[in-house]
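::Encoded backbone::
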Amino acid sequence: MKISYNWLKQYIHIPESAEEIGQTLTGTGLEVESVEPFESVKGGLKGLVIGEVLTCSKHPNADKLSITTVDVGGGSPLQIVCGAANVAAGQKVVVATVGTTVHPTKGEPFLIKSAKIRGEQSEGMICAEDEIGLGESHAGILVLDTKIANGTLATEFFNVQSDYVFEIGLTPNRADAASHLGVARDMKAAKKRELKWPLVDHFEIDNTSLTIPVTVENSEACPRYSGVTISGIKVDESPDWLKNRLKSIGLTPINNVVDITNFVLHETGQPLHAFDADQIEGKKIIVKTLPTGTKFLTLDQKERTLAGSDLMICDANENGMCIAGVFGGIKSGVSGKTVNLFLESACFSSQYIRKTGMHHGLKTDASFRFERGTDPNNTIYALKRAALLIKELAGGAISSDIVDIYSSPVANRVIEVKDKNVNRLIGKMLPREEIFSILESLDISVSNKKEDRFTVSVPPYRVDVTQEADVVEEILRIYGFNNIELTEIVGTDYLAEFPDKDPNKFKKSVGEMLAGNGFYEILTNSLTNAAYHQKHQLTFAGEPVEILNKLSEEQGILRQTMLFTGLEVCSYNINRKQKDLKLFEFGKVYWKKDAAEGKYQEEERLAIYLTGNIESENWQNKTRNVSYYDLAQQVAHVIQRSTVENIKQESLVDPLFDYGMKIIKGSKEIGKLGKVKTALLKDFGIKQEIFYADLSTALLFKSANPKFVVSEVSKFPEVRRDLSFVVDKKISFAEMKELVLATEKSLIKDIIAFDVYEGDKIPEGKKAYALGFTLLDGAKTLTDEEIDKTMTKLIVAFESKFEAVIRK
């Protein structure tokens, strides 16, 4: 949302710079994403001056060029070669001197240089209006009807306006700040200054010659509808001040009537719509919905098919004239021939407008505000403000009483606030007088002040303040988040002894490691298809969370596993010949913990997917298909990065996997990994193997330690010894590693399996392993006797525990 600095100053005293105001607004919760300069004419006409053509003669070497001398004040006249046919002596013109950067209406800016043109020196350029951004015409140079002194800056002559524009990242809950007066309200509270609303006290009914009655058939969709007629207007170009206001926030001026409705919308936050009263058949307005399938031609000349929930502004014959709160119709809009107006100012239901906007794919300035909630008590003020501006700029007379249909006025919300909750949520005890002052400055009145609590009355335009915590947030954002000091409990010693553990930094660290290993991060929708579960009769922890207003059955529930949304990504890429995939995703799974009580739970997971070839084919190495062990290696890297210790692996029986392992620490399951079941892959049209790991981000993060220990590199050499043996095939490498470390932990620094064999050369049901052991003593060099003694201990342990047959 764009807010003009100069426009804002109309409503509140602002001596501060635009940068300082940007910081203040950000502090109140209206985050200023950028502050950009604005000029009513592109480039601000900098370097351009008003000059007078003293002489004009034909160029000796070019029939279509003229040689002129131009007085630009303060020195000798400039010789300028000009190609315009209408140049003549005695003219007042706009001159771009050497060194000036000119900003044309179309095209890129260019620099004026001293140059020879067909052998004659030229020290500048006499400008046409399109060459300096003042218009579209290139018929000739711009000739001024003025006696102003030569050398006068063009910025002064054309009254170029400079401004700053705030780009505010408006959050959906702050509909009250979607206007200049709305932003000024926050400035009023933050700076403790008076807010100046434009006066409408002089609004008067001139006559009642054009009365147009209104009927609201759907008061749920339209809680309030106000309107008035204005007769005898003249549609014309808007004055410069109005055009500049609109241009500054990125709007294109159209005509005085339309520009006024846009101006008042961005001033007050109340959308308006102007109808050509002569095009309203039967001189009556009906606010209602029309049957599903009704065709309607909108202002952009597109025929749209209405839904049964689309609220329409209709004439006496129930023909649609406007999609309420969203978009106007082509027949009833204001044109150059419009003489009589019906001006609408209404409050429409946010739910109805949101549905209509989504149905038609329309997003307008009006729907932006109605979708978030407008002030039902502001329709009359905005109507009077616009009517007075139309009388001022377009003439005419107010020719009817104000129509105002407001069957069920919206009352203020009354909320009880406890002092202990204010202090608890803010983290600091504020003086009561300051709390009351902040709330009153936000138009939130305080009453029923008791010793430990008080009551507030919140106006309807503050749609985001609905409970006690919201009131506390209002106090805090105006008091200032930066004014809340760290308590003595959170001291430096505490922060230094126990470094902050940031889950986002942890995820970034793991993600960067995976990316460094060739993986791509994906982000998938949390909504998934219940059919995936139903077809294979899959069950997960708790019950699935169903979406009440689901857009389709394909997005009917929140996912309980990361697998299916990841398989959709794999399928999409494989179908487009991208078969070698290394993917990972941080995401959440959801379930109902207790269906009867409606308790919901969510958990963050890390999903890793591996399929296709381990690397691209190349002339140096033959590629191979990925395997379970490639995935296991990546999972091991993640666990190592998370500093999880004392983990165990167990064989996995899971309907999602053909085979796999689960990783356990203590009684908690950190995750599982394996080959995805072939039957599941067929549902996605995938014919190649996919290996998948599902890890608990929370458990990994809980073990992660931001501290690390640096130790000196050993001065003594490592020793490698290998051992080959045959054991029962059910015995895992993890069990072997556990036995080794239990037998000799001090000297064994690393264990690897460098060969595994199953086949007809060993008994059935057996497997041959070749393990490598790295031995190191940090205090001395190991002797052959110590090494042999250690290896003998390991052989005895393998023979007794696993009945291993040592191969010598």
Observations:
- Residues 280 and 315 are 6 Å apart (CA to CA).
- Residues 488-498 have pLDDT under 50 and may be disordered.
- The longest strand covers residues 581-594.
- The radius of gyration is 38 Å.
